[in-house]
Amino acid sequence: RCHQRSKAMLDVPFPPFCAFLGSLGLLCVALVSAWCQHWRGGFSLDGGSRTFNWHPVLMVTGLVVLYGAAALVYRVPNTWSGPKLPWKLLHGGLALGAFVLTVLGLAAVFRFHNANGTPNMYSLHSWMGLGTVLLFSCQWAAGFGAFLLPWAPSWLRQIYKPIHVFFGSTILMLSVASCVSGINEKLFFSLKNGTTQYKLLPAEAVFANTLGILILLFGVLVVGALARPSWKRPDSGSLDSHQVL
Q1: Where in this chain does the record put each Cytochrome b561 domain (predicted)?
Q2: 215: domain range?
């Protein structure tokens, strides 16, 4: 009885959880924007350091928050009945929006590096980030071909669906790892000569470290929501599913 009561207490409905997660995602976007505006000098397109500041903002917004929203579309109970196509379009559209923001974020950092003579793709953060983006692009293209094109056979969808779900969670966690490592790398580069060193934990370091923890929390909660059995969409062959392909 105690076990059943504890289980009931932990069985949080999806809508309030989704509202909390959405607020957390918006907070991450607000904090990374505030960091770049207040401590890193704001934003510009002149190729200088303010051009670089678009990189963390666009990456956190696209690769983490918007991608996380796309991953959770099918956890909304309203998607469990009725036509699938509108929800497929929403899922694919959110993912495409995330990809566009990510590409713009990459363009910002490459422009900054090229304008200042800084080598590209030498750090672990850059390798992990570019690898995540390439995997993301393959995931979107394969998902579009398997689930949105009308001539894709049903057997192909059934085979590819668990692979799509697995790589969806994998890409999100790689995105979180890339963003957190990027924040840490930026602090190491910026907080040294002429500033309070990172090891002395100035206010900027506390702020950015907190941002990294919140991004990590967002990613963990999204993956947890994707893995929760009671929030999963019923299989198409079950009695609870009445969707039209």
Answers
A1: 20-227
A2: 32-227
The total domain count for the chain is 1
Which residues in 84-151 belong to E strands, given as ranges? none
**Structural domain contains residue 26:** no
Q: What is the pTM of this model?
A: 0.91
Residue 46 structure tokens:
């002149």
Cβ(221)–Cβ(172) below 8 Å: no
- Determine contact, residues 179/56, Cβ cutoff 8 Å: yes
Name the region of 87 (left: φ>0; alpha: ψ -120 to 50; beta: rest): alpha
Q: Helices (H), strands (E): how many in the chain?
A: 9, 2
> Using one digit for the tens of pLDDT, what is the confidence trace for 43-95?
999 999 999 999 999 999 999 999 999 999 999 888 888 888 899 999 999 99
d(CA 104, CA 239): 44
In a domain? residue 11: no
List the structure tokens of 121: 């793709």
Q: Which residues contact 212 (CB under 8 A, 6 or more apart)?
A: 179, 180, 183, 184
Q: What angle do CA 223, 126, 218 make, to 5 degrees?
A: 20
Please check whether residue 24 lies inside any domain of the structure: no
The CATH code of the domain that includes 152 is 1.20.120.1770
| Beta-carbon-side half-sphere exposure of residue 217 (alpha carbons within 13 Å) | 14
Classify the phi-psi angles of 82: left when phi > 0, otherwise alpha if psi is within -120 to 50, otherwise beta: left
Judge contact between 58 and 36, C-beta under 8 A: no
- Report whether 164 contacts 172 (CB < 8 A): no
Contact 172, 64 (CB under 8 A): yes
User: Is the residue at 51 inside a domain?
Assistant: yes
